[in-house]
Every structure is written in C-alpha cells, then in structure tokens.
Specification:
Layout lengths: L8 H9 E5 L21 E7 L2 E4 L23 E5 L2 E11 L2 E2 L14 E2 L17 E6 L21 E9 L8 E14 L2 E6 L11 E4 L4 E9 L5 E6 L22 H17 L10 H6 L10 H11 L8 H12 L12 H6 L9 H19 L3 H17 L5 H6 L9 E8 L5 E2 L5 E2 L2 E8 L5 E5 L8 H20 L10 E5 L12 E3 L8 E3 H4 L2 E5 L1 H8 L1 H16 L4 E3 L10 H6 L4 E7 L4 H12 L4 E9 L7 H14 L9 H11 L9 E5 L19
Parallel strand pairs: 15-20, 20-23, 24-25, 25-26
Antiparallel strand pairs: 1-2, 1-4, 2-3, 3-8, 4-5, 5-8, 6-7, 9-10, 9-12, 10-11, 11-14, 12-13, 13-14, 15-18, 16-17, 18-19, 21-22, 26-27
C-alpha cells in the first residue's frame, strides 16, 4: 500500500495514537484465543482519544448483522486485544453505537454468554436497534507503557483540504502483538450528516476501518474511517461530531464507564490530557499535537492554538449546559447571527467549535465573547460555589486576553456580575439617645443595613445605611423601600426560577416579626403593588446578637458549628418540642439534645415559656428552629391550630434524604404555590448558618452624622 509522502509530526502523532484491535491475549488461566475470521490477524483499527480509551467503529467489533460478537467476555473482563507498542493489552468494549442487543434465538438457540453488537449494515432486521453512528469505545484494562492521545476536532463536520487516514496491521514478521501503522493521503469528498466522504489516491487496505481521518491543514482528527466504496477511489468516515450521540444508554453492562454524561466526560479527559502535556511542569519533552498545529501554515487570525487549548481546558471543568439550545444560543449571540449545523452541540466545547471560520479578522473577539457568555450563564444558573469560582476564573482569563482587543471590541465583551448567595437586611439597636413619644414612654431606636453576600464569605454593602435611629416600624418601612432595588439587581444575576434568598437579622426582642409576610413593592416603581416577601423568595430569620456573643463565647461558636454539621449529616431531622405550656424547653434538655434536633414551638415567643425556650435555644447555638409569630400564651394552651401547625411542620422536616440546605427553598415553594395551608401563616424559619456568619461589627459602616 502506498504510504504518505510527508512524514512530518502530524503523521507521526497520528500513527502513534492508532492501535490495532483483535483477539484478546491469552488469559492467566490458560483460556485459548478464539480464531479470527478468515486469515486476518487483526479485526480492524482504532485510536486513543483519552487515557485508557480507544475510539473505533462498532462494526469492527462484530462479525456481522445480528451474528455473534467475536468472543464472549472472559472472567477477567476482557473481550478484545489492543495492539500497541509491541504488546497486546487487554480491553473491554464499553460503549457501542448502535446499541448492543440480546442474542436472537435462531436455529442453534440463544447464547446468553455473548452480547451481540449490531452493525450499521443490519437494516433489514426489524428487531435491530439501528440508532447510532457506528462508533464504539474500548476501555483498556492494562496500563500503557507510554500514554498518548489524538487531538479530536471541536468543529462540526465540514470541508477539509489535505487529509490522511491511518490503519494498524499485523507485522510481516508474524511476532504476536507486533504491528505497524500504514498511512494514506486523501482529499475531501463531501459531507452528509455525520458522514464524511473522502477521495483516495490509492486503494484502502481492509482493516483500516476504525482508524483516524486526520485534517492535515488544521492538525486534528475529524473522522473515524468506516468503509471504502467497492468501486474504489473513495471511502466514508464517521465525523468525530457523531460522538455527541454518546449517552449512558450505549454502555455495556459490566464494562468500565464514564459516568452519567459519557460524551462530556470523555471530552473533558481528552482536553485535560492535552493541556497537561503542553504544560511545562507536566510535559515529557516530546512534541505535542499543539506543537504540530502551531507549526502549520495558518489563516490570518488572532485566536490561536494556545488560546483554544486553554479555553477547552477551562470549559471542561464547568458544569454542563442545561440543553443543546443553550450552547447554540450563546454561540449565536457571540457571532451576532444565527448558527445552523446538522449536528446539535452537546457541551460548551461544541459551542466553541461552532465559531470556527466565522470571526474573520475579529475571531479573537468572537471567541472571547462566547467565553464571557458561558461564564455569565454558569454564574447565573449554577448554585454550586465551586462552579461560581470557576466561572470567575474563566472570566478573568478572558479579561487578560482581552487586552489585545481594540477599544470597540473591549467595550462589547460585557462584564460578569457576581452571583449573590443572599441579600442580608440587618436591624440593630441604634447607638443614640432613645426616642420618647408623646406619652414620654421610651421607644427603642433601630438602624438598618443592607448587604449582598457571596459564597466565598464576602459581604458587600448594597446601600448606604442611615445614621439616625428610628422606631422599629419606621425603620422597617425605610429599609423595605431600599430593599426593592437591591433584590431586583441580585435577581438579575440568577435564573428566573432561582430568586436570591433574603436573610433578615434581628435582635431577640423582635423574634416575633413574621419577616416572610412583610409586604414589599414588587418593583422599584412607587405605584407598584405590594406582596409578601415570602411569596417571591426564600426568607429566613437570623440572630444579630449572636455576632457579639461569639466574640467572648468560643464554646457557643463550636456548638453552633457542631449542630450545623449534625443537621447536614442527619438522614432525617428530629423535632424538639416542649412538654407543653407553661413548661419551657429546659436548658439541660437543649444542651443534651442530639445535633440533628430542630426546636419547634407553637407558643408566643415575646413572653412566657415560648420566649424562654427560643432565647435558650439560640443562646446555646441552635442554627435552625421554627416558631409562630402569632403563637398562644401559656395560659391558653394548645388547640386545633397548634395541631395543624405541628402536623405541617412535621411534614416539612421529616423528609428522609433531604438536606437541611433545601429547607428554605422548600418552604418558599410551599408559600408560593399552596392554598388553604393555614399552618404556614405566621410561620417563622430561623436559619442561621455558621458557614456564612454575619458581617462583623467592626465592618459595619456607620458614618458619623454631620
């Protein structure tokens, strides 16, 4: 067979990544190798696409439509041999498209020991699952002497100029395990869906199926060789984009797996491997695919190979997009035009590939715009602190690279507004002379502060607080007016179905305030209607006095954290109730209660046993509790309303496997969607997390009055 005329780095890297696929090596228990079909020593070819993973065509691994697989799975998990570096490594077919199906009953009966891999050619059998692009993944069960990985394109199927195909065949010496690659130049012939037709300048040798089709102008693998046409002169390959159809449903039972999203995990490992090989601290000194790509004659443009390498590495660490439409929409927004491709994108990587060839002179701006949009989407839609941090890292790397843009392009990049974890409204006693009403009765004065809190523990002042104190009712109205705009701005950084939670910190004297039922304008317009805050978002009460208590009480701080940990580890929460009025929860009872306990009170908390119980629980470090704003007095005793209250709270809390972190959100959804649930009226959720303590007193910005 004719070999490639140019033996450059790209050919060498492609050949090194190409492997032969055949019968497995002899097992330690002496199980024989089943004879191969005909006289061929190998069944076909494949190539390494991530550490320990080989990509090939599914039909390479079967004998034909609906017939037996080449051999049953051995007890050690092996069903295929991978020929590389003069060795035959044990492998296992892990994923197959078309999907595997059970053996058909035929003249010789079913064979339960062998799964059947159905070839794309089996189109006549009505019981054959023909879904899938004729691709398979083999998991290596043995380590390689030297890891390698081909570079898979991130582009959808499209035109290429100079190309080549590579297969691996048994060595003429006949030494078991020894094989050699053979290469052949080809040209582009056309694309239909996930099929690429290529033109051959010489006949393609049987056994090339499953090998790589490389674009020699861009230095990347664009397809998996599928077949040659009988008349010769051309062949077809499955585009690499066909891998996007890979799902967990294509997994074969008992084989190694790539998790619930195998395509995105495979691409993450692929991109991570190439990034580490290029890193000075991790490389082995040998030429890489990126080195070979940088040496190629390139079209004029400012988005380079190293830019792509870094972007793919960062995108691989991000949470996946919600839908294919998300990727397509962000790519279209970056390009400022509609993007239509025959193969739908799956991950962020695919969206980056959709930008190839569209940017022209502005290709750097287009790619950076897409990355900023991804960072903003993740920051808005992911509640995980780690995801928010990675989105910020991606955004900051784009800003550094954006120094190369002109003034207009820099202005069009947009900015990433950090996603607040919560908005905090604090009320504290004013450091001023008490106000006296007309009856000369002393009234406590309050000042308020508004903050935005973030997952990293930062608190950011959202409004300049007043310096003069007011009675609580007046301070509350002033604070709620200022709160409207803060909540609107915070909600804009989050998904529509994920409003920013509101935390209200009060001193213990105001613990009867039904904060979730405070009414607030629905938008910043003075004429906007008012509605209860708890309808629109999770609302929770916090203790502002705990901040000062913790300064001098290290044991309380540890109890606070220990009980918080206990609540999160608990399989189900334990309700802690007093025996009944007028008996409060005793101090010893509260101190000895297990860490998964949540105090629940139906008594009035402004006086009597309810007041004593709440103040004791909070003073002893309880982070979560529930009580009623309109609870009954000790002299009244419990009634039907109390029964409904406790029954509703029990249903809310007694949720096996449900984390206490979801409690504010679950309560919000009940408030916003329930009707006729009387037990919710006046319900106060005390939820004071030690993971996000209130801003320290020294950081509270009180300005001296003029």
């Amino acid at each position: 067979m004719a070999t490639a005329p140019d033996r450059g780095e790209l050919w060498q890297l492609t050949e090194e990544a190409t492997v032969g696929l055949g019968a497995p090596p002899p097992s330690d228990d002496g199980l024989p190798i089943v004879a191969q079909r005909g006289s061929r020593a190998l069944w076909g070819s494949g190539f390494l696409v991530a550490p320990g993973w080989v990509l090939t065509c599914a039909h390479v691994l079967v004998d034909g439509p609906g017939r037996r697989a080449r051999r049953a799975v051995r007890p050690d998990g092996t069903d295929v041999g991978v020929h590389v570096d003069g060795r035959v490594l044990r492998g296992r077919v892990a994923y197959s498209m078309p999907l595997p199906r059970a053996a058909r009953s035929g003249p010789h009966g079913p064979d339960s020991a062998t799964d059947l891999l159905v070839s794309e050619a089996d189109r006549a059998a009505p019981d054959t699952d023909r879904s899938g692009p004729d691709l398979a993944l083999v998991a290596l069960l043995d380590p390689m002497d030297r890891e390698r990985c081909a570079w898979l394109t991130d582009r959808p199927p499209g035109e290429f100029g100079s190309g080549g195909i590579v297969g691996r065949f048994a060595h003429p010496s006949g030494v078991p395990g020894h094989s050699e690659p053979e290469s052949l130049s080809c040209g582009y012939g056309g694309t239909t869906g996930t099929r690429i037709k290529f033109e051959l300048r010489a006949d393609m040798r049987p056994g090339t199926s499953g090998g790589p089709l490389v674009d020699l102008e861009r230095g990347e693998i664009v397809g998996v060789v599928k077949a040659r046409f009988r008349e010769g002169g051309s062949g077809i390959a499955v585009a690499v984009s066909g891998l996007r159809a890979l799902t967990a449903a294509a997994h074969l039972d008992g084989a190694p797996d790539l998790g619930p999203d195998p395509y995105e995990e495979l691409m993450r490992r692929h991109d991570d491997w190439h990034w580490h090989r290029q890193h000075p601290e991790h490389g082995n000194g040998e030429p890489t695919w990126v080195d070979a790509q940088r040496a190629l004659p390139r079209r004029r443009g400012s988005w380079g190979v190293l830019d792509r390498l870094e972007a793919l590495h960062q995108l691989g660490a991000m949470p996946p997009p919600s839908t294919s439409a998300t990727v397509r929409e962000l790519a279209a927004e970056a390009l400022d035009r509609t993007v239509a491709h025959s193969v739908a994108p799956v991950g962020w990587r695919d969206g980056l590939g959709m930008l190839h060839g569209f940017g022209g002179e502005g290709d750097l701006a287009v790619h950076l715009s897409y990355l900023v949009l991804v960072a903003k989407w993740i920051s808005k839609h992911s509640a995980e602190p780690e995801a928010a941090a990675r989105a910020r890292e991606l955004y900051e790397s784009v800003m550094k690279r954006g120094h190369a843009l002109d003034a207009k392009q820099r202005g069009q990049l947009g900015t990433l507004r950090p996603r607040p974890r919560a908005v905090l409204l604090e009320f504290d006693h004013a450091p001023s002379t008490p106000y006296f009403d007309e009856g000369e009765e002393e009234v406590q004065q309050y000042v308020w502060s508004l903050y935005k809190g973030y997952e990293d523990g930062r608190w950011e002042l959202a409004r300049t607080p007043p310096t003069d104190g007011q009675p609580f009712a007046q301070a509350r109205e002033s604070a709620l007016d200022a709160l409207v705009g803060v909540l609107e701005a915070a909600d804009a950084t989050r998904a529509d179905d994920d409003p920013v939670p509101l935390e209200v910190a009060l001193p213990g004297t105001e613990f009867a305030a039904a904060v979730a039922e405070w009414e607030i304008r629905e938008d910043a317009r003075p004429s906007a209607p008012h509605s209860p805050m708890g309808i629109d978002r999770p609302v929770m009460l916090r203790d502002i006095e705990r901040r000062a208590q913790l300064v001098d009480a290290a044991d309380v701080a540890e109890q606070w954290r220990a009980r918080w940990r206990g609540l999160h580890r608990a399989e189900r929460l334990r309700l802690l109730r007093p025996a009944g009025p007028p008996a409060p929860l005793r101090r010893a009872q509260l101190k000895s209660a297990p860490h998964d306990s949540v105090p629940v009170l139906c008594q009035r908390v402004t006086a009597g046993s309810g007041h004593v119980a709440v103040q004791r629980a909070v003073g002893l470090g309880y982070p979560v509790a529930l009580w009623r704003a309109d609870g009954h007095g000790d002299e009244d005793g419990c009634g039907d309303a109390c029964d409904g209250f406790h029954e509703g709270v029990t249903t809310l809390l007694d949720r096996p496997g449900e984390s206490v972190r979801t409690l504010p959100g679950r309560l919000w959804k009940l408030r916003s969607g329930a009707s006729g649930t009387d037990w919710l009226r006046g319900l106060i959720l005390f939820y004071d997390s030690p993971d996000h303590p209130l801003p320290t007193a020294s950081a509270r910005p009180f300005e001296p009055p003029p």
